[in-house]
Amino acid sequence: MFRLFTFALLIISIECSSQVNHYTTANLHSHNDYENRIPFYKAWENQFGSIEADIFLYHGKLVVAHDSIQLVQERTLDSLYLMPLQLCIRKNGGYVYADKMRSLQLMIDIKSEAVATLNKLIETIARFKTLSNTPSLKIVISGNRPASSQFNSYPSWILFDGELQKNYQPVELKKIVMLSDNFAHYSHWQGTGEIPAKDKLVLQQIIDKVHASGKKIRFWNAPDTPDSWKALIAMGVDYINTDKIDELTKFLVD
Question: Which segments of the chain have a pLDDT < 50?
């Protein structure tokens, strides 16, 4: 009996290890990236698959901020993200990363009114032709979004982060690259030890359903801990939300 138990633990250990090793930094999402001491470049140097910038339309400019209090800093999307991205793409011969198999999802979380802000974003990105022309970059809109019935009226290079609990028409789903939701809607686990079995079952069913539809999935507000990373990876979550770029990168590499 002891030998069987030991063998079972070994198999579980091997499976967990192989699942972690299967994930790379292409599966990582730099949440509130602009709050890093060095926005954009820290996640880019680690070849993250997704980087998030929250924006407000403020005095005619797209300002990167999480809330209105930060608007006085007037850190623009152009200076923090669009110009650095353009430089990287030019440096790498038309690709975001030197490894042409790698791609980046720049997720723009709109905090001000949806339509006016998105129109300004489209106008702004149109000035950076390299961004809309490279196959290695996706511009994905989250936060305040226009009505889903209007998704297809936007340029082909504008895509959307869908809301997990919302039903979309097939034509709308074509403009959606992933579905996201608040982890706390499904579990109050704090990310230490094992996730409760009943929570894991609920999450797994949702993840499997999203994958069956051909979409990727992300949970925001999930615990940002090694135990949580391990659990999310084991369940097959496509993008792991993190504010800990170095720690999570090391976790995957080790």
Answer: 1-18
Nearest to 178 by CA among 140, 143, 224, 149: 140
Residue 185, number of CB atoms within 10 A of its CB: 13
Structure tokens given for 199: 């929570």
Element (H, E) at 138: strand 137-143
Residue ranges of domains in the chain: 24-253
Decide if 175 contacts 141 (C-beta within 8 A).
Answer: no
Q: Which tens digit of pLDDT belongs to each residue from 94-149?
A: 999 999 999 999 999 999 999 999 999 999 999 999 999 999 999 999 999 999 99
DSSP, residue by residue, 65-78: -SSGGGGGG--BHI
**Residue 191: closest CA among 211, 219, 162:** 219
**Cβ atoms of residues 168 and 203 within 8 Å:** no
Instruction: Report DSSP state, residue 154.
Output: S
**Cβ burial, residue 216 (10 Å; 0-12/13-18/19+):** buried
Q: Which residue, 253, 249, 250, 215, is CA-closest to 44?
A: 249
- Candidates 3.30.460.10, 3.20.20.190, 3.40.50.720, 3.10.20.340; CATH matching 24-253: 3.20.20.190
